Every structure is written in structure tokens, then in C-alpha cells.
Fold each of these.
Amino acid sequence: MTIIAELHQDHINLDKLLVLLRSKVEKMKEGEHPNFNLIGDVVSYISGYADGFHHPREDKIYEYFMGRDSKLDTLLSNCEKEHADLRQSSTSLQEAIDGVLHDAVIPMEEFAELLEDFVLRQTNHLNLEEGDIFPKINAVAGAKDWDYLAEQLPKPEDPLFGARLAQEFTDLYKELIIDMNAA
Ligand SMILES: [Fe+2]
Ligand SMILES: [Fe+2]
């Protein structure tokens, strides 16, 4: 798989999780109590894999392609800032979830808003990269660039969608399978 194809696959996987979170937000708005452990697993995966590996990998690619096109440069530096903002929003959500799991009283509406904001930010970010940034990078990149980057950026292990499922994500994996069968 090429690097862009790998990143695209990560986006497809992330989107599955965002679909799951969106359905949790809807249920919360209807007054249902969500499974906070499961939401915690999703956020823990996103902050571990997306914030920890996927975005840093993209940052290195974006830095590499800086200086080829001025419009692309602006997009790339904005996108790098978004990575930092996304990391911050994962941390805030994770803290809220930890609070709930440790009996902190957080109004349901407030939590639903926090979760909805998280999902929206993540979704907009994926759309920006897929709709604007990746096509523009592809337009300036050549085979040599990708060969060089492939050597520099080995693919990290994905603990949820990769070859080996991490123990901590077993429940989430099952939920995703159930969701896919129900769809
Ligand atoms: Fe990104
Ligand atoms: Fe991405």
C-alpha cells in the first residue's frame, strides 16, 4: 500500500468510529445513558493511534512537501495546527470520560455537547484532508517522493484495525462488528 493509501485507510477506520460516536450522541440526546467505557475506548484509540501516530506521520509528510506551492503551504500549516487542536480536544474529552467513570457529576447534556464537538472536529479534519489536502499533495508529488517518504515513515501497528487486536480494544472491536452487521 502507498503512504496516501495507508492514511486513507486510517481515515476510513476513524470514520467508522465517528459513526459509532455520532450514534451515541443521538441516543444521549434522546435521554439514553451511554456506555462510557466504550466511548472511553474510542477516545483512547483515537488519542493513542490518531494523535500518537497518524497525525505525526502526516505532519512529517506535510513538512516534506512545504515550499512547492504557496496555497498548499497555507493549507498544510493550518492542518498541522489542527492536529494540535485535535490532540487537545481528545485530552479534554478523555478527562471528562475519566471523570464520569470516577463518579464525577457531569450533566448529560454537557457531555453530549463535548462529544458532539469532538466528532465534528474530527469529521471536518478528515474531510479537509481527503477533499483538499491529499489531492493537492498528489498533484505535486512524484514516485521518488513517495519512495523516499516510505523509507522515512514506517507504518505503525494499529491496535484496533491492524493485524493484531490489542486486548484493551476487544469490546470496541465487538461493538464495531455488531454495528456493521446491523447496518
Ligand atoms: Fe490529519
Ligand atoms: Fe489524517
Note: Residues 108-140 form the longest helix (33 residues).
Amino acid sequence: MSCVLVTTNNGLYKPKPRIDVLHWRGIGRFLRWRHGRLFGQLLLLFVAIIVVYDGLTGPPFAPENLATNTVWLQYRGFVMLALLLVGNLFCMNCPFTIPRSLARKWSGTGRRWPRTLRNKWVALAVLFVYLFLYEWLDLWASPWLTAWIVVAYFVSSFILEFFFAESPFCKYICPLGTFNYVGSTISPLQIQVTNQEVCRTCVGKECVNGSQDANGKILMLGCGTELFPPQITSNLNCTLCLDCTRACPHDNIGLVKRPWLNELKTARAWPRRWDISLLVWVFTFAGLSNAFGMTPPIYQLAAWLSGRLQTTNEGILLLLIFAMLNLILPFVMGVGTAWGSNRLSRVWEPLRITFSKYTPILVPFAFAVWLAHYGFHFATGAFSIIPATQNFLIDHGIYILGSNPNWLLSNIVPLNWLLPLQLIILIVGFGGSYYVLTEIGRHEKASFVTQLPWLLLLFMLAITAVYLFNLPMEMRGTGLMH
Ligand code: SF4
Ligand code: SF4
């Protein structure tokens, strides 16, 4: 527990207790340790090397290969839990930032990322392409392609950091980071300064500028994504690297507990920009379309489209379906709802403002959809990592985990629990979104009628999700595929 100083109405400062993880005994010290992050990164680098190696040389059947098993089953389950319970732990320990840091060291300061690209449009496009390729190329079933994706990550982060400053790969490109940024807006921890007064009089602003010795040698890195901690209102773009906390000479930054959903109901926590808002809409609709991609109706839709367009090219058909579901539909429904809400309100404001103001209401429900989906895969396949690891070791003459993999190990909960659990997650997510809507409405002094289009939209999304999760889903990449 530490204190944050806040200004009261009469101008005096009074201490307010807050929970700061960086001041917890043991873990806090470890996180503040200069090499604390490197420890986690090296651990994940080791995992990444195994993934690439087994992906390129191991068994071709997805559940038996550590590449597909780790990336598409374990990683996605853990990342959702981490975002929900802690924050952006994957970016904190991301192994792809190791070549990135080397590139930064070798290249010096680097050029500025082009001004026209300093937004989320590229990230949005890359996320779309990534989700499309996942479905089209059945990445979850291909250890070989999975391994090459990991290699591509390392190469891209190195090249971009070599030529540009501002960690453009993390901030503007990486689809995993993009997903995690949006997901982490519901996380219970956030970077926060303890005393704004100290920041006001701080000369070096080392948290963002870093520090150097007299010879220009870098002593401490400042924020790679160029966030300025005294002004942070959101987890968007924060990789939780904690460089700022180590760089601040006044020990004025904490990793602080905040109420769940606080960021989403806080006015102006996010810039009111089209790119950021649309990214959240794509995140939401992609959650539904991704689940849809594992159910029988997608094949019926593809067959119908194939007949209309007179083509059997699976790539074209899928691209059209995904473009419709993940780009056109969210844009039309988002702007349409904002327009409706605008018309029903007595206060006219630009469509962009209405659209951005209410976009945060989507996040709890969207997160619930992804959690229910990735949680499904994790719950049906998490234990398959045991025989896959045994198999990997046996193939290399190591028998410490036995010599007979039990390929029946797979699900971690009884299969008949899955649907009820998914429905509970969806109901909680819907409740969270409804709560954020009412809080935004209260803050904006918006009438019930003004909020009605957003409420209808939430209901439509909820009905769609319940319908989808009631359909039979492919148990991709799990031991149950045997
Ligand atoms: S270096 Fe520390 S004291 Fe200075 S502006 Fe940053 S957070 Fe505030
Ligand atoms: S604000 Fe910047 S330096 Fe601090 S944890 Fe987030 S990304 Fe890292």
C-alpha cells in the first residue's frame, strides 16, 4: 500500500491510500529490478525457440506438436486470463522485444515513424489480415506455418526498430500487441504517477526521455512507446515494460490497482479518434466472426456466396466474408448507432464524438466473447501439452517424463460444463457493457432515449453470441481431435 497525493477543494494535499504492486514485498522488488523483465523475456524466448524448432521438425499433427499446441491453445488461454486478472503480461515478457532492443542499441536513435502512420489504421489492417490468414490457411493446424509466423515476428520487430524510433512495431503494427492493448483496457492494473506536483517540477522527464551519462551512453530507457506517465489515462499502448518506473529518478511511478472497468467509464480516457474507436469495433466483431468461423453455418454461407459469384476460390470467398463481418458491418452498425443516438439526443455533436464516446461500452462484452472462445479451446485442450511435451522429449532421447505419452489427456473441465461456463461469461460481459453504458450516459447527462440505440446494439450482439456458442464448434488443435 502506498499513497497518492491529491488536491482537495481548498487546495491542500491529502494522502489517499492505493495499492501499488511495485511496493509489494518480493514481487515489487523483482519488477523494479533492472533485469526483472529480461528474466521473463528469456523464459518466453526459450519457449519461442522450442516452438520454431518443433514447428519445423516435429510431428505434423497439431495437438502433438509444441508449436501449434503452445501458440493456439496455451498462449491464447493464458493471455486472456492475464489480461482479465492482471494486465498486459504478454507484452511485458514479450520475447520479440529482445531483437528489438538489440536493433535499437545498434542503430542509435533511429528516424521518426512517418507522421501519417502514427495512428491505429495500420494496426487495424494487420489485425484483420492476421485473423483472415489464421482462418484461410488453418494456421492452428499447421506447425510449419506457425513456426514461420514466430520467425516473421522476430525479423519484423528487429527491422522496424533498427530504422525507426518510438517502438513502431509494438505501437503501430503487432497484431498481438494490438489485441492486448484493447483487452488490457479492462485490466485491474495501470501505470500511474504518485504525485503530479513532483512531475510538474521534474526537469529531465526521464520516464519518457530515458537517461544518459556524460558520454551519451544510455543508462536507463524511457518509455519505448512514448507515453508520458503523468498523463496516462489508459492502458492503450502500454506494454507494461516498466521502463518508466525504473527510469524515474524520483520513484514517482507505480503499477496501481484501479477498479475494473474504470478506464472504460472515464470520459476522455481515450483520444476521440476514428482509428482507435474503429479498432475496438473490429475487435468486437472479429470475436464473433472468429467463433462463427468454427461453426457449420460458415460453410453454408461460403457455398451460397460461391454460387452467386461463380467461384470456388476459398481465399476470395473467405476474404469477402471476413471483410463483410469484420470491417463493413462494424463500421455501418457503429456509425448507424451513433447517428441514431445523435438524432435522439437534444444536443447535436459531430458523429465522431458520439461514436468515440460510446465505443468503450463494447469492450467488456467483446472481451467476454474472446474469453468464451479462447477459453473453450483452452478448456478442451490445455492438458494436451503434457503428452506433446513427453513426445518431444522422447523424440530427443529424454525420458524424464516417461516413455508413453497419454494422448487422451486434453480437457481440463468436463465437456458438458463448457456451454454453461461460456454463457456465464457472456452474461457477465453483457452486464459490464451495460454498466459502462449507464455510467457514460450518467456522465454525459444523456437521456434513456439517447442510450437506447446502444442498448439495442448490445442486445443484438448478445443474441448473436448466444446463438453462435450454442452451435457445434470444432475442437481445433485439441487432443479430442484424435
Ligand atoms: S521522470 Fe518521474 S517525476 Fe519526472 S515526469 Fe516522469 S514520472 Fe514524473
Ligand atoms: S508507460 Fe511506457 S515505459 Fe511505462 S510501462 Fe507502459 S509502455 Fe512501459
Note: The chain has two domains: 18-257, 266-481.
